[in-house]
Amino acid sequence: METYKFKTNINCSGCVAAVTPHLNKEEGIGHWEVDTKVNDKILTVEANGKTPEEVAAVVAKAGFEAEKI
């Protein structure tokens, strides 16, 4: 299991709610969370078999940006 961190534009609880179904249903994504209190809105994802690019694509499908840091 890999842990990835992304800088995102997921900046409020409504944004988290919008991205939740996309990340929760994606095979290979385990626990994830977004720290909306920091400026970079850090998304931390535990991925099993997913690349950072694949995780970022799931976030993009939800309408948000994710840049691996």
Unreliable residue stretches: none
* β-strand number: 4
Residue-averaged pLDDT: 95
Q: Total domains, how many?
A: 1
CA radius of gyration is 11 Å
Going by helix content, strand content and strand pairing, the class is alpha+beta
The termini sit apart by: 17 Å
Strand sequence of the main sheet, in spatial order? 2-3-1-4
Q: How would you classify the quaternary structure?
A: single chain
Number of helices in the DSSP assignment: 2
> Portion of residues in helices?
25-40%
Which geometry do the CA atoms define? globular
Largest sheet: 4 strands, antiparallel
| Strand residue percentage | 25-35%
Identify the CATH class.
Answer: Alpha Beta
In CATH, the topology is named Alpha-Beta Plaits
Domain HMA: 1-67
InterPro entries: HMA_dom, HMA_dom_sf
GO molecular function: metal ion binding
Protein name: Copper chaperone
